[in-house]
Amino acid sequence: MVVSTKVQREQIASAATRWLTQAEEQTVEEAVSSASLNPLLIYLTTQPDHALSTSHIVNTAKTFKALADISRSLEIRKQLAQTDLALASSSLLQRTEQELSKVPNEQRAEWVFLLVQLLRSICNQSADCDEARAKLCESEAPACIGRILWLDEVQGDAVVAQAAFAAALNVALDSADCAQLLIQADAIGACLNMLRVEKIQLKQAWPACSMGLDTLCEHEQAMAAFEQHPQMAQTMLQSLYDIVQLLESNTADDDVAGVLRGARRTLFWCLSEILEKSSQARQQLCLAEDLLKMFAVLKHYSSADQNEEEEEESASANDSPNSRTIDAVSRMLVGVTGEDHALALFDNRQVQSQLLDTIRTYPVKSPLATTAVLCLGNFARTDTHCEQLVSEHSDLVKQLVHNWLTSAADVRARHAASGLLKNLCLPLPNRTMLASLGLPEAAASAIDTAVVPVQANAIGILRHLLSGPAAAETVRCLVDSSASSAFGKLLETVRTTDIDAIRCEGTRLVAATVKRIYVRRDNLGDSLQDVQAAMDSAGFDLVAPLVRLVVLDGQRHPLLQQEALVALSILAAAGRASDIVRLLDPTDCAELFPSLPSDASSEEESSEPQLAFVEVLKKLVRQDGPVWPQSALQAKSLVAQLQAATKDLAI
């Protein structure tokens, strides 16, 4: 039996040797035929000690090199996936990993050569081949690859690194199970470690490394890696920044530059997706040096030769090839500065100078300038920052009012500027200066814009300015005797818009304007008598939008309902009680609320019928159901005024 076994082993080993010697002479189809390949696979799976012995390890490595070469065809890969090649590759890879942990230095070269060929074979086997990935996963090859990524040879040799990270990439693509095994072996940490290398030769492994990292980060378990690697986003940003610096300095030869461009693109989009998904990742970049690096990346893409970019397609036919990338960098910067952790960065001289100088230097339509304004808007979330911007940089604020908020600017610029200016209006001390810079006029001109965010911000700006020392000037910008005045456009917008937020906030502005014009509580009110006369002569329908707000949005927004009731009470006292009483008639009131469209959802169709204005007032006065106490009191006051002005009115 012993002799027979020995003979059998020698025959199998001989068959394997013949396969290798004949591989170059045979066609690929002959090499992968079962008659030719099966003896080799039996040998590799049943006699690993013999295959990995000192006298045979090089031949075994050459065998897997040949297998890797013939696996480049998808048809051949699918044929090989029906064999035990994945099992043999995985088994020998795990043995190789074990041996490398104890083999002496003088013998490591042969084992590393074998390692590279095994990784190449696994990489090619698994490319676009789910069957091979499934078999590799069953034999836990991904976990082994994940551990191998940490070997000194991988982290220190470009050839080994490329083979290892390419194998990890192909195994993980479209295979959540393989990706999970790699993540559990901390392959993400190994990728980050590779991205920290300084030798330019090793950076040639960055494309495969970054693509592998990108693939792993799509897995649901990858989010936990953000906690495990608290500098993950910083490492990726630093590598991206390094690539940008190398490309701009022209110190890399053409081959290396091409490799770096591929890594740049993958690394950038991977970082972009991570920052979009994870607030924790964004918080990692809430440091001055990281913000400045992101601006350097934005400048790079804004000025890069379009022929260098690897974009498959632009957002539209009119966009430049790298506009999609520029937008993504902008979103990264805006996302990071939107974190509360980033607020303190406004006090950093370099960061503040970067933002302010960019706005002053670049044209309004430049993505650099627009991004800087958006970032300033995020920093302008404290009164201190807002007051500092207005008091110390009034020239820049004036530039935003006259060059950015006007219709001549593009949509992104107007959106960015209007958001920042709205925030700057919040502190009371800023309002006089902002009014003197022409903000009321600029905001009033944007009331009827078709750009909804700009319209919403313009309405918000005017509502803030109506409270405080700039109120009189703001009212005069809104109201004159013509229907084409800003106030007339506001009423038309409130009447026709199908956007709840615009209707609600626009009606609040109507209520605030009514309160300012018709209430005589201070010198401000007295100075607006001419404006009241203009308002009365224009014949504006002030009651209808306020009634709509009371009826439509009362339960959802009790504060808005209360503000509308206050404005109605003021109008009743100012002689417009009859206009309000008319709408107590359910027939007249129904005209304010168009019926639902024919394609309305079943949920809307089955909802309760719209209450009439008189019924809403009854509920408020009687406090029937959930009613805000202030709204109940104001409703009672309004009813009392209406009853005093109209005989036989019962509510």
Report on the structure:
The protein is an all-alpha fold and 651 residues long. The chain is 71% helix and 0% strand. It has 40 helices and no strands. The chain is elongated. Residues 309-318 and 595-607 have low confidence and may be disordered.
How would you summarize the topology of this molecule?
Blueprint: H1 2-23, H2 28-31, H3 34-46, H4 48-51, H5 57-70, H6 74-80, H7 85-100, H8 105-126, H9 130-138, H10 141-148, H11 152-156, H12 158-172, H13 176-184, H14 187-195, H15 206-217, H16 223-228, H17 232-249, H18 254-277, H19 279-284, H20 288-303, H21 323-337, H22 349-361, H23 367-379, H24 383-392, H25 394-404, H26 411-424, H27 431-436, H28 439-444, H29 452-465, H30 471-478, H31 486-496, H32 500-518, H33 523-526, H34 529-538, H35 543-553, H36 558-582, H37 586-590, H38 602-605, H39 613-622, H40 629-645
Mean pLDDT: 87
Cα gyration radius (Å): 36 Å
What is the straight-line distance between the termini? 110 Å
The biggest sheet, with number of strands, parallel, antiparallel or mixed sense and barrel status, is:
none
The unreliable regions are 309-318, 595-607
Oligomer: single chain
The percent range for helix content is over 70%
Strand content: under 5%
The count of DSSP E runs of length 2 or more, i.e. the number of strands, is 0
| Distinct helical segment count | 40
The secondary structure category is mainly alpha
> What would the principal axes of the Cα set say about the shape?
elongated
